[in-house]
Write a structure and sequence with these properties.
With 463 residues, this protein is of the alpha+beta class. Among the domains are: 110 residues, RNA polymerase II/Efflux pump adaptor protein, barrel-sandwich hybrid domain (OB fold (Dihydrolipoamide Acetyltransferase, E2P)); 209 residues, Chloramphenicol acetyltransferase-like domain (Chloramphenicol Acetyltransferase, 2-Layer Sandwich), CATH 3.30.559. It starts with a strand and ends in a 7-residue tail after the last helix. The relative contact order is 0.12.
């Protein structure tokens, strides 16, 4: 009988994706493990592998199609010995089998990849269609069927639950349109318009503060003369970035701490480290085995500071504080149309040369949208460096589930006072944004002072 190939879920919160490219054509034979297509999400392009053997009878979704729903049938395989034309005619009519619901489980303390948000799915990808090898991270408890007070199960994303709670809506009264019937943000918004409320007897949800309504598209367009602009539709990445920034600034109480670090000792050590790099032969010729940047040393210093101040290496959840056992540092990388934060896992344990080579690889694949979800989802903190643009200082927006992010400015020569006399030193201003629910002012200050200590005494990063 025909075998339906469905649109895979690359993360537990993915609802749709773009079918970027077919790597097979009708009539081709495929075996389990063969790469048959490329699926594009907001921040990555993933390869889809066949899980069955057969002949491609029909490609139902053309390459380049956007907004293909998860579990939608995208192609049909004919089994061995089956008539291909008959399979092409019969396949694709049956609905995709719903995935088996997982049993909720508590996330292991210290594993940031278990924390999930609807905005970009902070969890490892689904095993369906095996588009990428999973790192074994479990989904967040709130992303699995959650038990209601009455003992029944409700599928709902964390964002949908929060919006429903603020609006006084019982999420179980809403019909979900997401994967496996999950209630998503759009379902709650639709329910609000229809006036669905919490059932009688339920506790009334706290009244939400009056929201400042954004100007509608029509209202904005009326401000400009027709023909004086070009309206460029948002792609998935820009929509995700906008949604996450609004969520972060509206739900996280940001608190900012700034101090200056002297860089002269670090710059001198960096030169020594790079001068000592062995030469290796590559396809491009001979080149150093590594080249450590100031940003690589910032990553290492931040990781060691979190190791020294473990209470700041945390994530806020309503149920409790996640205390992380390792410093997984996300690094903001600019890519066409937006940015992404690949993560250096266990950065406190890695050498500067290892961090340098890992960041070179991650940044290169990030710009080509070739990162796996587990390489940019999760993390315990982040670093955003705009020093290469000459920016002196700035404040960065925290990326949930992180509780901190370090904004790094340019190193520049400034006049400083040392021992009562004016001297010249290379100074770098850094600003730590903290989630005040998880990291108080004193704790954040302790973390930033520890970071400054490693920057100004960089030999401590080598021992």
């Amino acid at each position: 009988m025909p075998i339906n190939i469905t649109m895979p879920a690359l993360s537990p919160t993915m609802e749709e994706g773009n079918l970027s490219k077919w790597l097979v054509k009708e009539g081709d034979s495929v075996a389990p493990g063969d790469v048959i297509a490329e699926i594009e999400t907001d921040k990555a392009t993933m390869e889809v592998e066949a899980v069955d053997e057969g002949i491609v009878a029909k490609l139902l979704v053309p390459a380049g199609t956007e907004g293909v729903k998860v579990n939608a049938v995208i192609a049909v395989l004919a089994e061995e010995g089956e008539d291909v034309k008959a399979a092409a005619s019969a396949g694709g009519k049956a609905e995709a089998k719903p995935e088996k619901a997982e049993t909720p489980s508590a996330p292991p303390a210290g594993d940031a990849s278990t924390k999930s948000t609807e905005a970009d799915g902070q969890a490892a990808p689904s095993a369906q269609a095996a588009p990428a090898k999973s790192n074994g991270a479990a989904a967040s408890p709130s992303e699995t069927p959650a038990s209601k007070d009455e003992g029944a199960r409700t599928f709902a994303s964390p964002l949908a639950r929060r919006i429903a709670k603020d609006a006084g809506i019982d999420v179980s009264a809403i019909s979900g349109t997401g994967p496996r019937g999950r209630v998503v943000k759009a379902d709650v918004e639709a329910a609000k318009e229809k006036g669905v409320a919490a059932p009688a007897g339920d506790k009334a949800a706290p009244a939400a503060a009056p929201a400042v309504k954004a100007m509608s598209d029509d209202a904005v367009l009326k401000l400009f003369e027709e023909g004086s602009y070009e309206l460029v539709p948002h792609d998935n990445m820009r929509k995700t970035i906008a949604r996450r920034l609004v969520e972060a600034k509206s739900t996280i109480p940001h608190f900012y701490l700034t101090l200056d670090c002297e860089l002269d000792a670090l710059l001198a050590l960096r030169k020594q480290v790079n001068d000592a790099a062995p030469i290796r032969k590559t396809e491009k010729g001979e080149e150093p085995a590594y080249k450590v940047s100031v940003n690589d040393m910032v990553i290492k210093a931040m990781a060691l500071a979190l190791r020294d101040v473990p209470d700041a290496n945390a994530s806020w959840t309503e149920g409790g504080m996640l205390k992380h056992k390792h410093a997984d540092v996300g690094v903001a990388v600019s890519i066409p149309g937006g940015l992404i934060t690949p993560i250096v896992r266990r950065a406190e344990e890695k050498t500067l040369s290892a961090i340098a080579n890992e960041m070179k690889d991650l940044a290169g694949r990030a710009r080509n949208k070739r990162l796996k979800p587990e390489e940019y989802q999760g993390g315990t903190t982040a670093v955003s460096n705009l020093g290469m643009f000459g920016i002196k200082d700035f404040s960065a927006v925290i990326n949930p589930p992180h509780a901190t992010i370090l904004a790094v400015g340019a190193g520049e020569q400034r006049a400083v006072v040392k021992n009562g006399a004016v001297a010249i030193a290379t100074i770098m201003s850094v600003t730590l944004s903290t989630d005040h629910r998880a990291v108080d002012g004193a704790l954040g200050s302790e973390l930033l002072v520890a970071f400054k200590r490693y920057i100004e005494n960089p030999m401590g990063m080598l021992v």
